[in-house]
Write a structure and sequence with these properties.
This protein is an alpha+beta fold. The strands form 7 sheets. Strands 2, 3, 6, 7, 8, 11, 19 and 20 form an 8-stranded mixed β-sheet that branches. Strands 13-12-24-23-22 form a 5-stranded antiparallel β-sheet, sandwiched between helices. A 3-stranded antiparallel β-sheet has the order 1-9-10. Strand 19 and strand 20 form a beta hairpin.
Length: 598
């Protein structure tokens, strides 16, 4: 009897535990069925009930920085303030323990708080909801404000109102305003790249927005633990430029001053590193402030240095000299007899800018006096096809490696289209057209011992995951021999020491090589040259004994001084600043004096 009684409680305990275990297993099986086996079915059911929602997880467009990592363009977040009118109209509601609801704050009270943060009239904010509900009592969407600051967003978020949402929007900021604006370009209000490097390198800078899915109660409150990131947000990469921000600023100020002083239509200063082809500054005036591009006329928002080719004038004489020497068509000591105006082969008429008798010019003398007739007679010694082929090697007639949006290839007609006049004109920079970067690239070739290195504006692109791409090529192409480049460089030094602008371009302690050019301008309406309108250039490099930097100063239709002398003050200041900025060691020797006449 005692044994039977003692076993009964034990059996009851085992039975109870078994029942609990069975129930527990049933719950687990059901839980697995709901969350794993039939999860998709239940998600679909929740979607059908309108309980699931999603939001965009915004990524940031990449930054643009200069060669030293200084930010030139970056993204900031602005926020729209969206409201659910149906819920807002009910005010801020709380639920008591017995299940009843009560209003803690009316919409009118809340609208006043929102308006205070936004700096708006409370009646205006209140009207957004009342108007929406008046049209549709079940309205679930209205906009209270757009593009509010991060500070305002945080103030509104701290109110904890479940019927307010704040979708972020990427905004673009250019901290230095118009500094480099012609190169940087800009984006539209929707964040789409529209111009400049923003457009050219959009594949580097563009971001990819993500997506977050969540469950939401009927009162608009997100259910805890239901947020799932279904698509990750990926920020854009960092675009590092070859530009030096401080140097770019200085050149921008300098060219603005020179354009205004000479009454020119526009101007540009370009600085390129001789041994690498890296563009350290390219300043234009007028330029554009990417923060407000619409404040600038549409035709001034781009970079005309890349898009608008011009006749380079006498700067081309250095190329003709290099081609003739390198091809063996003539030697350094060859001379020609040239007057200030002559009729040449086929009746072509060539005239110099100043009157003079018959001079027995050396090649150096032709460059010093910038004689059109003299260089034409040297050009007669070079086969036309040879000259054309060399010009192509110098990069004339094709876009640069920068491939800037809208960049022009310039104009270089095939030899078959050259008449006698064109044959001579192309020797001194007429009858063809180049962009400023093309001309600078040609002079970079001479400064770099005859090796042309592709120009570059972009140093690299670093993606969000650290991957580095878009590193510019440093592989150059030999165009002329090192000996030819040295000889032409020394001739250009003598232009700087013996020419009419010698006192204006000298820099104490440095050997400087220069060439000027005054190109005539074509009137688009008539196709003929515009009277008394010129595009002036001074281009050169230093130290000439070991070239480090090329500087080009360009003025479009200067009025106070219409010759290349208009560019001399800015050129001297620009080159001096470049040498100082990069701490270039002064020359240890003086320029060799070469004879003008034979």
């Amino acid at each position: 009897m005692t044994t039977t009684l003692s076993r009964s409680p034990r059996r009851r305990t085992v039975v109870a535990l078994s029942v609990v275990l069975i129930v527990l297993i049933a719950f687990v099986v059901r839980l697995v069925d709901i969350q794993v086996v039939n999860a998709r079915e239940h998600v679909d059911e929740s979607l059908a009930m309108g309980l699931q929602n999603s939001r965009v997880e915004y990524a940031s467009r990449g930054s643009i920085v200069d060669e030293n990592g200084v930010t030139l363009a970056s993204s900031v977040h602005r926020y729209d303030v969206q409201v659910d009118p149906m819920l807002a109209a009910q005010g801020l509601v709380s639920r008591d323990d017995d299940g009843t609801t009560r209003v803690e704050a009316t919409w009118s009270d809340l609208a006043a708080k929102i308006a205070d943060i936004l700096g708006e009239d409370p009646a205006t904010v209140e009207k957004v909801v009342t108007d929406a509900v008046a049209v549709d009592p079940a309205s679930r969407y209205a906009i209270i404000a757009k593009d509010v600051s991060t500070e305002q967003y945080r103030g509104l978020a701290d109110l904890g109102l479940p019927f307010l949402v704040f979708p972020p929007k990427a905004g673009r900021v250019y901290p230095d305003g118009a500094v480099g604006g012609n190169l940087l370009g800009f984006v539209g209000g929707d964040g789409q790249a529209l111009a400049g490097l923003e457009l050219a390198d959009d594949s580097c800078l563009a971001s990819q927005d993500g997506k977050v899915v969540f469950q939401q109660g009927r009162d608009g409150v997100v259910l805890p633990g239901t947020e799932v990131q279904t698509e990750p947000a990926v920020d854009g990469g960092t675009l590092k430029l070859t530009i030096d921000r401080d140097l770019q600023w200085y050149m921008g100020q300098l060219i603005a001053e020179q354009v205004q002083n000479t009454g020119a239509v526009r101007g540009a200063i370009t600085v390129v590193e001789a041994k690498t082809g890296k563009v350290r500054a390219l300043a234009e005036y007028p330029t554009v402030d990417p923060n407000d591009p619409t404040a600038t006329p549409e035709d001034e928002r781009g970079s005309w240095t890349f898009t608008d080719p011009v006749e380079p004038g006498s700067t081309f004489k250095a190329l003709t000299a290099a081609i003739g020497l390198d091809s063996g068509s003539f030697a350094e000591g060859t001379t020609v007899t040239a007057s200030s105006s002559e009729t040449l082969r086929g009746g072509a008429r060539v005239t110099d800018a100043f009157a003079h008798g018959a001079n027995n010019y050396t090649l150096t003398g032709v460059l010093i006096d910038s004689s059109n007739v003299g260089i034409s007679k040297f050009a007669e010694m070079i086969p036309a096809q040879t000259r054309f082929d060399y010009l192509q090697k110098f990069g004339i007639g094709s876009t640069t490696a920068i491939d800037f949006p809208g960049e022009s290839a310039g104009i270089l007609h095939p030899v078959g289209d050259w008449g006698d006049q064109t044959f001579y004109n192309t020797a001194f920079g007429q009858g063809l057209a180049v962009t400023i970067p093309q001309l600078v690239s040609a002079y970079q070739t001479i400064a770099n011992g005859g090796v042309r290195v592709p120009l570059s504006l972009v140093e690299s692109c670093t993606a969000a995951d650290g991957t580095v791409t878009d590193v510019p090529s440093t592989e150059g192409q030999r165009v002329v021999s090192a000996d030819t480049a040295t000889k032409v460089s020394q001739m250009l030094e003598n232009v700087a020491t013996q020419g009419t602008l010698a006192s204006q371009v000298s820099i104490p302690g440095y050997r400087v090589a220069i060439k000027t050019g005054t190109g005539e301008k074509t009137d688009p309406a008539t196709g003929a040259y515009k009277p008394d309108a010129y595009f002036t250039t001074m281009i050169g490099f230093a130290p000439a004994d070991d070239p480090q930097y090329i500087v080009s100063v360009n003025l479009d239709e200067p009025r106070t001084v219409k010759s290349s002398a208009a560019t001399a003050p800015a050129f001297q200041k620009a080159l001096t600043q470049v040498l100082k900025n990069y701490r270039v060691i002064p020359s240890g020797t003086t320029s060799p004096e070469l004879p003008k006449f034979g």
